[in-house]
Design a protein that fits this description.
By secondary structure, this protein is an alpha+beta fold. It has helices at 12-22, 34-38, 55-64, and strands at residues 2-7, 27-30, 46-50. Helices cover 37% and strands 21% of the residues.
Length: 71
């Protein structure tokens, strides 16, 4: 698994997961339970992971849909 996206925006990961799923790309969200430690204020980023062999396709899908992320 490789990191595709890291964000504190709680709406971005579900959006990205939907875009990826429509293209048949599986993804997995990490750090979901960090909100328990931070008190729900959103200071710790969550990560979206995809299989290493799908990372280029996943980046393309997000770019084509205007999702900004770091390469």
């Amino acid at each position: 698994m490789e990191e595709l996206l890291r964000t504190t925006d709680i709406t971005l990961i579900p959006f990205a997961q939907t875009l990826l799923a429509e293209q048949g790309i599986d993804s997995f969200e990490l750090d979901v339970n960090m909100s328990v430690l931070e008190g729900g204020i959103g200071i710790f980023p969550r990560r979206l992971m995809v299989r290493a062999d799908m990372i280029d396709d996943a980046r393309r899908v997000l770019r084509e849909n205007g999702v900004r992320f770091e390469d």
